[in-house]
Write a structure and sequence with these properties.
Length: 325
């Protein structure tokens, strides 16, 4: 009888293990990076992963092209990644040049409890930005894409039938602005808004009102007025209403989710602020929204979220990885 109970217990444990085991499809679905080509897999001895010098890393194998990975940590040009090994996951180091951003993979199944993504198959592309011709380049080739949401660090595009999150630095458009001025944020600390006009004059016809905190593309910077595209609409705004940014390299920011008490799947909302003397609220956004996180100022994270650039309390951010030093 005791032997029978032991056999039944073992059988039940095997069933539970099988049921809980993650599949390769589930692993791939939650990865946002993959190898663009076959690449060398490296290991390091304890405490040596402190520079990008490849002499610090010992080759231990290879990763085939199109291997989906999750990034665990960074060291110079090297990335410590977790990958599928055939029956589970393993980790190792690869050169960042071998990795390709694939964003959220809408064509792959979403495992239960995985991070909600913007690429729901029922979602239709937004044509708000179609007046602006935007090109995406992953280093190999350039392709015209449909811009969905613009951020200082991270943007969302629609390409080849998929919604993808990509570094804004990988996007380009026709502009006369310098590299450190091709992106700007509407900055109006006193009123929270500014006026877009057809002509570079206070008497110019008003096109629309632009909300503070929205990220815009810059086409040409003048002495007093700058030509921008705000949510797909082109016009002129005063230079004093803009805060210019150089699109950051992807090594200088991290990603995460808006959260409430550590939870990302509730109906709670989180306020995004512009940190002025009056700490103006820009918008309230539901938790679970995807973030690009660029800096921390006291108890505030500087973020891109849903086309806004502002600040969120650190208690309301769940980071995918620590901020780079």
């Amino acid at each position: 009888m005791k032997r029978l109970l032991m056999l039944l217990t073992t059988f039940c444990l095997l069933l539970m293990t099988t049921a809980l085991a993650e599949t390769e499809a589930e692993w791939n679905a939650k990865c946002e990076w993959k190898t663009g080509t076959g690449t060398t897999l490296y290991a390091v001895t304890q405490g040596t992963a402190t520079s990008s010098d490849l002499s610090d890393f010992v080759p231990v194998g290879t990763l085939p092209a199109n291997t989906y990975v999750g990034i665990l940590e960074r060291s110079g040009n090297m990335r410590n990644v977790r990958y599928w090994n055939g029956s589970g996951t393993s980790s190792g180091w690869v050169d960042s040049a071998a990795l390709v951003w694939v964003g959220s993979n809408s064509s792959k199944p979403k495992p239960s409890g995985s991070r909600a993504t913007a690429s729901d198959l029922s979602r239709k592309p937004d044509d708000t930005w179609n007046s602006l011709t935007v090109t995406y380049s992953d280093g190999d080739e350039a392709q015209t894409v449909s811009l969905q949401t613009l951020g200082v660090a991270m943007s969302e595009i629609y390409m080849d039938g998929e919604f993808l999150r990509v570094p804004t630095a990988s996007l380009s458009w026709e502009t006369e602005a310098d590299d450190n001025q091709r992106i700007a944020v509407i900055y109006a600390p006193s009123t929270g808004k500014c006026t877009m006009r057809e002509e570079a004059s206070k008497k110019g016809k008003i096109i629309m009102t632009c909300k503070a905190g929205r990220v815009v593309t810059v086409l040409r910077v003048g002495d007093v007025y700058t030509r921008i595209v705000y949510d797909g609409v082109e016009g002129l705004v005063l230079n004093s209403c803009l805060k210019f940014y150089e699109t950051p390299d992807e090594d200088t920011f991290t990603t995460g989710l808006l959260s409430a008490k550590g939870k990302t799947n509730t109906t709670a909302t989180v306020s995004v602020y512009q940190l002025t003397k009056s700490r103006r609220r820009l918008d309230k956004i539901r938790v679970g929204a995807y973030l690009a996180v660029m800096d921390k100022v006291g108890e505030w994270y500087e973020v891109d979220v849903n086309g806004w650039h502002g600040f969120v309390k650190d208690a309301n951010v769940t980071l995918d990885a620590p901020l780079p030093d």
